[in-house]
Amino acid sequence: MSGIADVARLAGVSKSTASRALTGGGYVSDDTRRRVTDAAASLGYVPSTSAVSLATGRTRTVALIVPKVNRWYFGAIIEGVERSLISQGYDVTLYVAEPGSRDRESLYSTYLARKRFDGIIAVALEPGDTDLERLLAIDKPTVCIGNPLQGIPTLGLDNIGITRIITQHLIALGHTDIAFVGSTPPTDAPARDVDERSIGYRNAMNDSGLAVRIRSVPSTLTITDAYAAAASFLADAASRPTGVVAACDEVAIGVVIAARRMGIAVPTELSVVGIDGHDYAEMFALTTVEQYPEAQGVAATRLLLSMIEGEQPPPRTLAETRLVVRASTAPPRTV
Amino acid sequence: MSGIADVARLAGVSKSTASRALTGGGYVSDDTRRRVTDAAASLGYVPSTSAVSLATGRTRTVALIVPKVNRWYFGAIIEGVERSLISQGYDVTLYVAEPGSRDRESLYSTYLARKRFDGIIAVALEPGDTDLERLLAIDKPTVCIGNPLQGIPTLGLDNIGITRIITQHLIALGHTDIAFVGSTPPTDAPARDVDERSIGYRNAMNDSGLAVRIRSVPSTLTITDAYAAAASFLADAASRPTGVVAACDEVAIGVVIAARRMGIAVPTELSVVGIDGHDYAEMFALTTVEQYPEAQGVAATRLLLSMIEGEQPPPRTLAETRLVVRASTAPPRTV
Prior knowledge:
The structure is a homodimer.
Chain A: H1 4-11, H2 15-23, H3 30-43, H4 49-56, E1 61-66, H5 72-87, E2 91-96, H6 102-111, E3 119-123, H7 130-138, E4 142-145, E5 154-156, H8 159-172, E6 178-183, H9 191-207, E7 216-218, H10 223-233, E8 243-246, H11 249-261, E9 271-276, E10 287-290, H12 293-308, E11 316-318, E12 322-324
Parallel strand pairs in A: 1-2, 1-3, 3-4, 4-5, 5-11, 6-7, 6-8, 8-9, 9-10
Antiparallel strand pairs in A: 10-12
Helix pairs in contact in A: 1-2, 1-3, 5-12, 8-9, 10-11
GO molecular function (chains A, B): DNA binding
Domain HTH lacI-type (chains A, B): 2-56
Keywords (chains A, B): DNA-binding, Transcription, Transcription regulation
């Protein structure tokens, strides 16, 4: 039977590097990890989990908490976290629980209390949430993706700044009648991000002397709900805005689909901007601020692994974004 | 400190039921489980994982293998599996790896070889795949969602029968020029399901004497790819079919969006049917055969838990489906 020394020799690395690559006990480059896992595979070598755990006191597992799976943003984060943790030798235990739900309750009282993980990545936790205290009480390295939180390093967007930029984009094109679509009920995560985006829109409108034109259309952050909301708020041509700032791309896409169905030309009669860089953004020629949730998952993983190694990451890391102007925005027809 | 006896007393159940509810060692109704977990939570009782594992020889973890997360079908299955396993006291370890990828390779050589789980649920495994042998070699209870497989109980659809029904639906409306859209490259999972659906379409066309009209349009199973494919195959009015059988709803939706963009009226000039019951199906008034992947996730979990308890489920379980006729299909205009 082959041992770790054989694996190291075949991969051309030291025994300790081979061990790190196979057990996740420290950072190893993807390339080295591949060489080592290839060598291990060709020799049929599998490290004993219980032996590794006994030696390191680690489970080599990370708990990933998301409010839902089947939304583009959460799905992409899960893929990013999973891919990067797997490449570092960790398993991912997935917990899906909407804030305020019964599942969320037992998540904290039972599953997280078991502490069968070395660290936690939690997505879209709301500040002020009682979850926050309970998460801290677990006393394991924890990173959140979303809003800034007290006592937990977070990775997220400058929501206010981003929404200011896309609102100003419409104002610069000559729009004065601009609605914000997607002010959600507080149960629809991530509500705080949407609140901040709404503030960015309001700030930009106020700064441009358009305070009296500020208006919000409620919708959850799904294409279907935004489609339904748009069918109603776009119906009256007299009161129809010429521009829409959508809380996210799914809302923007719902508005575009509804507008097309109603014979309202985008962008000639209605300009629409979103936030996300959704898979469908290009198909709908959507002007948007791209964020990269899969890359955020990877970055959060890196932050967490550094914490597990004893480092203290900065309290707040801003994720990269980029404004992409496409054909869903243009000057309003009447200007 | 409270013990299991206190929890059982507060929940009004026997000690063994309380134990089963908290450790996942056997079936307990959702209602009883809630009473027990509520009681445990209010008493601050958490069963010791290592003690439970030592006593039962179980990890109370299930490995869930999917080719990707960010597709409606896979996302819904993940949510169903996760929800039902959590309610039975199990953790879910998520493995995301496309067949044929490097991640898939290390999944088998390293992660699954560790056997840190009591059972496996694998989604969209292809028959004849080398994965199949390796999965069997792990020698743990395993259930697959998708096509029938040798040696592993599976849960899935009668793809041939379903596609025959939707093709016949179009033929009965008077269509003779019907294309199948979504014949995928074999790397795009689940390729076998699509093959079968293509056969169902061909059978129905053949049976109605329409053999010479059989034609397939390649597209992966995404809205964006189908949109791009449709923009091309719908362009020439002379060769345009009057009906489209889509390999899934995402393909159907991509075709509908493209048709609308090109000024081709659905259903007047083009009827479109899909398979899925996607979240967006109603918004696009799509005639489709609904399947329920979240319920499939729940059902697969039940099959797996019965295997863990020593039962042998049937080799093949057919998932429920239902034809829903909406406004995307109508008689062709020329008839």
